[in-house]
Write a structure and sequence with these properties.
The chain is an alpha+beta fold. Helices cover about 15% and strands about 30% of the residues. It contains 1 helix and 8 strands; from the N terminus they run αββββββββ. This is Lipoprotein.
């Protein structure tokens, strides 16, 4: 009886180890996170990885991110991001917006506008 239990435990351990090495085999594969993006006025903007060098961001903000989706999803409604809520943004030069994150302005470009 001990041999059967030991054998069953060994098979279970090997099965679990196999799932850890190949998570897709167990249905546990995670989707990779997408680049940070936001949807504003029907346009999807993607993080360029660049910080704005503009010296003047005074005046009223154009809007605020009010909803979020998970990091592995694309936003589908206006003022929605895949990196969080509460961030203010301004429309910048054509095809870009700037988002205020951690006391710094970051440039996001419209999808298909050199941001791919």
């Amino acid at each position: 009886m001990k041999k059967i239990i030991s054998f069953a435990a060994l098979v279970l351990l090997l099965t679990l180890a196999s799932c850890a090495v190949h998570p897709e085999a167990s249905g546990m594969a995670e989707k990779p996170d997408l680049v940070p993006m936001v949807r504003v006025e029907g346009t999807l903007y993607r993080d360029t990885g660049n910080e704005s060098q503009a010296e003047n961001h005074s005046g009223t903000r154009a809007g605020k991110i009010t909803s979020t989706v998970s990091a592995d999803e694309k936003p589908t409604v206006d003022d929605q991001s895949n990196f969080g809520t509460g961030y203010e943004y301004q429309i910048a030069v054509e095809g870009t917006i700037e988002i205020f994150i951690n006391d710094r302005w970051f440039i996001f470009a419209a999808e298909g506008n050199g941001s791919d």
